[in-house]
Amino acid sequence: MLKLEQVSKTYGNKSEKAVDNISFQVYPGEIFGFVGPNGAGKTTTIKMIVSLLAPNSGKIIINGIDNQKNILEAKKQFSYVPDNPELFEKIKGIEYLKFMADVYEVPVAERQQLIEKYLAVFEIKEAVNDPIGSYSHGMKQKLALVGALIHDPQLFVLDEPMVGLDPKASFELKKIMREHCDRGRSVFFSTHVLDVAEKICDRIAIIKKGKIIEVGTMAEIREKAGSQESLENIFLELTE
Amino acid sequence: MKEIMALTKLFINESWGFSKFLYNRTNNKKAFYKQLVPMIIVPIALIPAFFMYVSFYIALYAGLRMINQTSVFLSVGYILTIALIIIFGIMYILSEFYFSKNIEELIPLPILSRNIIISKFLSILVSEYVFTALIFVPALIIYGVGEGMGFVYACLSILMFLTVPVLPLALLTALIMLIMQSASIKGRQDMLRIIFAFLGIALIMSVQVWFGNHMGNANNVDFQNLMNNLLKNNESLLNTIGYFVPTSLLLAWTLNKITLMSLAWAASSVAINIIAFALMVLVGKRFYIKSIVRGKIIKKGKRLSQIETQKALGKKSHGVMAIFSMDLRLLLRTPIYFFNNVSVVIIVPACLLISLSFIKLTPEDFNSIRNFYTEMPILVNFILIAFFIFFGATTATTATTFSREGKASWLTRMIPISSKDQIIGRTSVAVIIESLGIVFTLIGVSFYIPLTLLSLVLTVILGILGSLPILLFGLFMDMNHPLLDWDNPQKAVKNNMNVVTTLFVGMAYIGLLLAVSGLLGYFINPWLGYGLFSVISGIMTVVFYKIIDKRLAVKLLNFE
Ligand SMILES: Nc1ncnc2c1ncn2[C@@H]1O[C@H](COP(=O)(O)OP(=O)(O)O)[C@@H](O)[C@H]1O
Ligand SMILES: [Mg+2]
Prior knowledge:
Chain A: Residues 2-234 form the ABC transporter domain. Chain A: This is ATP-binding cassette domain-containing protein. Chain A: It comes from Acetobacterium tundrae. Chain A: One of its GO terms (molecular function) is ATP binding. Chain A: Pfam families: ABC_tran. The complex is a heterodimer. Chain A is α/β, with parallel strands linked by helices. Chain A has helices at 42-49, 71-77, 93-103, 108-121, 137-149, 167-182, 194-200, 218-225, 231-238; strands spanning 2-9, 19-26, 31-35, 57-62, 65-66, 78-81, 155-159, 186-191, 203-208, 211-216. Chain A has a domain at 1-77 and 184-190 and 201-240: P-loop containing nucleotide triphosphate hydrolases (Rossmann fold). In chain A, 38% of the residues lie in helices and 23% in strands. In chain A, the strands form two sheets. Chain A has a six-stranded mixed beta sheet with strand order 6-7-8-3-9-10, sandwiched between helices. In chain A, strands 2-1-4-5 form a four-stranded antiparallel beta sheet, covered by helices on one side. In chain A, helix 3 (93-103) runs parallel beside helix 5 (137-149) and helix 4 runs antiparallel to helix 5 (137-149). The longest helix of chain A has 16 residues, at 167-182. The radius of gyration of chain A is 18 Å and the shape is globular. The two termini of chain A are 31 Å apart. The relative contact order of chain A is 0.19. Chain B is mainly α. Chain B is built from 24 helices and no strands. Chain B has helices at 2-16, 18-27, 29-66, 73-99, 102-106, 113-135, 137-146, 151-163, 166-185, 189-232, 236-244, 247-255, 260-293, 306-312, 319-333, 335-358, 363-375, 377-394, 409-414, 419-446, 453-480, 489-494, 497-523, 526-557. Chain B is globular and about 75 Å long. Chains A and B meet through helix 2, helix 3 and helix 4 of A and helix 3, helix 14, helix 15, helix 19 and helix 24 of B. The structure holds adenosine-5'-diphosphate and magnesium ion (MG).
């Protein structure tokens, strides 16, 4: 579903690489967690996947499409919610959702049904006719989530999705992620909240200073670390 | 004092982006040069304009000297400076005090609110000094040299230079704070901001027009008498000007002739400035902080029922339409954008019409205008075309299209919209705004000249066609150098070099094209002129479209 091959990125002419020669794969039907401390390069990697940043070298294949060769097609395969969704302040929630539905060419009946559903799930129905500038951080994030879910993407990319959400919303989001994968699609998300990764991910990759240091299921990573420790401890050891 | 200095430095740094610039010098060479090059090129490009400006002053001084009226010279420079400071000051004050987000971070800190106000004011003042140095100092120097002034004049003129922007800025700031306070109570700040800014400009314009008219009438009524008066009495014109801008008298009394009294007048000028400054701080303490602490009120929409929600979503639009309506909404709903990018097409025709209405035309005048048009329609047509294209270039809608989205631009870059849809959607917004200007202008012109249908069709089509290359060039510039890292929408348009570059390049290009096709049309055959104009415009449009279409998708990857 998603394949990164030896991807590297340096910002400007800094000496150290933000992302250093990383490769991994996300298979259809799995929730893949991208775990690492602050500044490890998670956001940078995600931006390269969602075509907001060009890698210096390496290849990114989304659903069989190279995202540097066929940018437009690749963009149709995923949807993305950034860690801090900055949205147009002067636009109303409903206008934003209509924009997203138009852009992803969602049929009318489907968009009406899905938006209705997700607005209810995330409890932002009341605010949908207000300008986004009047939303709280969490509300913006919820709106961005609804906007990302309406075209039912093959790959769902989220950057630190649980950070700004209230418990109910983050519970619902986890449920949605699972359902999404049950239909043979994939979820790729970054987090530094290890609990989350441990509970809901099928596989994880651990990144540190731009390098992938472990990839696999929880069991595999534990086995390598040779203990029954929680991910927390393994993580601390690995990223020391 | 230390706090004020530190804050002022912070605000200046923030509004000019020095830190980012220095960071880029070591960490991102490419971005650094992208910033550096326009910093060198734009001032160089402005040199001819500055040269013309100075020559205007020299000519004015020489002219006044001939009629023995040099005493008004400084007053004229002063009034011009003040008018410009006020016109540009409105937006700077609004943006520094009200649109900048730093205030919300500063209020919780243990800083005296007085110091915040003073520092914000000083940070604006510093830019105004740069501005004043360019537009007022030439007048001071020309007068000083012309009159053979000495050391005392030099000292006093430095002092006067330092005081010139303070008074208008302080009063303007106080006024804006008062109006913003009453505006925010109603909870519709944004709209009122626009209206306020417009009223301010309208007021200045009408005062100037009225002033010009007043003087003009005097000329008509009894020119001989006035001339005699002027030649006899060196002070009468000075007093007339002083009647409109009283502080101009202080300046004139201080600098026109250096006597002992000059010192006294200089001192009182300084005193008045200090009073204005204190007044501004007082008003600020009383109203500004309060209106910020009350919070920005955003008007909420009404709740939508299920049926209304369904209806709002009930139509599928094409990608071009999606981009177009998003861009247009942002433009119309953000006051700063509206003011900078849209208002030109309303203000310029309106001002033109108002000033024309002051000129009383006799039926013979009307006839001669009409005859001119019937004899040489091509000239009138090309003038109209030039005017329409002027709207296209000055609104800078495409030259800031990505920049205006700022930190939210990730959205329009991430979505699967083809380059074609992006280009057409964004350019259409500019064309719509331009069309607005075209309609207003045509309405205005129709009062004076009954345009033929052929003229209407020709000017509208060629006007829009001719502006397309400039609009696309603006898009090309903004695609290559978007200014996204701002916290204050003012920066997206005001600190944006794309606007200046597009304006200069666009004007040079279109001036040349219009001149060549105008001459061709006038001397050989009108259709040859229109034809050449259309063909070149068409070719340039296609070329730019192709270039952008080819590069846009990749450029969007590299915005940060
Ligand atoms: N726009 C940028 N310019 C320069 N350096 C950056 C930029 N964004 C991120 N970095 C650097 O890249 C590294 C990785 O950052 P990031 O991918 O945001 O980490 P994470 O999301 O894992 O916390 C950090 O060292 C950070 O300082
Ligand atoms: Mg991050």
